[in-house]
Amino acid sequence: MSAVAAPAAVMVPSPRPAVDDADTVAVLPVLFVPEASQWLSTSSGRIAGDGYSWMQAVHWVAGSGLYQPRRHRSHGPRAFGQTTVFIAQLLAELSPCRPGIEYLMRRTGLTRRAVQNHLQILRETGLLAYIVKGTRQRGGPAQASEFARMIPREFDVALGIRTVQRNEDAPAYTRAVSGIAEAGRELMAKLAKKAARKVRKPRSKTSSKAPAKASVRGAEQQVVTAVSDEVRCTPMQVGTSTVSSAGATSLPPESKLASGVSKSPTPKKSKAKAGGRRKLNLVGRRFQLARELTQELDWLRGCSVPRIAWVARNVADAGWTVTDVKAWLHFRGEAAHVRRGSGLLAVLLAGAENILDTPAKRADAIEQWRGALEAARRDRIRQVRARTERYEGDWQPPTSRAVLREVEAAFDQVRELEHGGRHQDQGQDHVGDGQDTVLEPGDEEITALIATAEGELMQGETTLITSFEPGTALRIFGAELVRRARQINRLANSSLTTIRYR
């Protein structure tokens, strides 16, 4: 008997012909699903309850030898081998099962045609069925096909699995497992051990000239490692761990016919970056830039980070940093009052990646922006220093004798009020309004002080008036200017108002 028929005789409980009968030909059932029956609505199989149960059926098809690709075509793989099992293992980790061709090429290292051939093998064996077939639109990315993981009817017949349709109105592919024959329990336990181990990525391609027996034997004698029962939706890496044994078998449901998977005691760290941190992908860089913008720009505080990531997606994809964006916003201009930060950012960043399209241009923009910031800082220091030297220096008494007499009289009045002298109303009548007081021809300095104080009050400054004692300020500037200065000071110290200087 051939090497292909031997494992098939173990897998399928069917009578074997006598070896010495030369005229008798061993006819094995053919496992093949035509293209018209490769859809979920036309499939004769049933949907797998989980990836673990589906991998049991995959290993059964790989070791049965019931499917030979070269019976139907003259090119492609010669058998259902280790590479096909590895691709099926990747599909078992996806939920929903929507594998892109580029994703499988990256994980397996195969060409596009090779990946398509192995997916065709899984469809022709009844292990996969189309739910939605992918399309390619002009000018857009290709849409991945969505598959349903199926268990062929031949698998149920070979192992004696009984199924029942619990809902009469439901399709036939929704039937569930209700039991298993005693003869199939031992085989189910062996398949459970294989499904519980993870198949490694094949290091070298099987030669196209190798016989089909070697491919089948390779699927039986492949190197495996333990697989964790945690299934990720879209896996980012292929982890490795130590070999673990499978547990004992039990009665249905199917996912528990042969269970016993152990978890790895230590979590695995990604090797994409030192320290166990993964390298950011396209979406990660968008969210990182958006988070930095909301932290460093005052008018973006409180905005939604996903919305800002979508607005800044073009500059983030072009490799911009938060410093590049701030330099561009400086030259683009910013509004004084912002109603909607994300909308303003979308207007300001429109076409920015096309104008500063090289790192050299962005570096030059950053240098100009920093130069402008330094110039503005020096100008503010110069203004503060000039204001300090003008209003906060040591006060020099006026040289006019008339002004000195007025100042001395004001000080005398303040001292009398502090010691219980004349009443305040008398002092008010004596002081009067400084603007209405007729000054002598030699009082040019007090006129200049009043004019300077009026100019400061128009700008919200009260430094000159408050530098004098209250009585002296009333005598020199008058009650009206002093009242306005006190009102401005009260407003400046209030938490309900904000005074800005232009």
Protein architecture, described:
By secondary structure, the chain is mostly helical. The protein folds into 3 domains: 5-256, no CATH class; 282-391, no CATH class; 401-493, no CATH class. It has helices at 5-11, 51-64, 82-92, 101-108, 112-124, 153-159, 185-195, 212-220, 282-296, 305-311, 313-317, 322-332, 341-348, 352-355, 359-391, 401-418, 424-431, 444-458, 463-466, 470-477, 479-493; strands spanning 46-47, 128-132, 146-151, 161-164, 176-180, 197-199, 224-226. α2 (51-64) crosses α7 (185-195). The protein is rod-shaped and about 130 Å long.
Q: Residue ranges: pLDDT <50 for 5 or more in a row?
A: 1-28, 206-252, 254-263, 423-442
What distance separates the N and C termini?
Answer: 99 Å
Task: Estimate the global geometry from the Cα principal axes.
Answer: rod-shaped
Q: Roughly how much helix do the residues carry, as a percent range?
A: 40-55%
- The domain tally reads 3
Please indicate the percent range of residues in DSSP E strands (runs of 2 or more): 5-15%
Query: What is the average per-residue confidence, as pLDDT, rounded to a whole number?
Result: 75
Biggest beta-sheet profile: 3 strands, antiparallel
- SSE topology string: HEHHHHEEHEEHEHEHHHHHHHHHHHHH
Main traits of this protein?
502 residues, rod-shaped, 46% helix, 21 helices, two-stranded antiparallel ribbon
Summary?
Helix content is about 45%, strand content about 5%. With about 500 residues, it is mainly alpha-helical.
Please outline the helices and strands:
Elements: H1 5-11, E1 46-47, H2 51-64, H3 82-92, H4 101-108, H5 112-124, E2 128-132, E3 146-151, H6 153-159, E4 161-164, E5 176-180, H7 185-195, E6 197-199, H8 212-220, E7 224-226, H9 282-296, H10 305-311, H11 313-317, H12 322-332, H13 341-348, H14 352-355, H15 359-391, H16 401-418, H17 424-431, H18 444-458, H19 463-466, H20 470-477, H21 479-493
Antiparallel strand pairs: 1-3, 2-3, 4-5, 6-7
Helix pairs in contact: 2-3, 2-7, 3-5, 9-10, 12-15, 16-20, 20-21
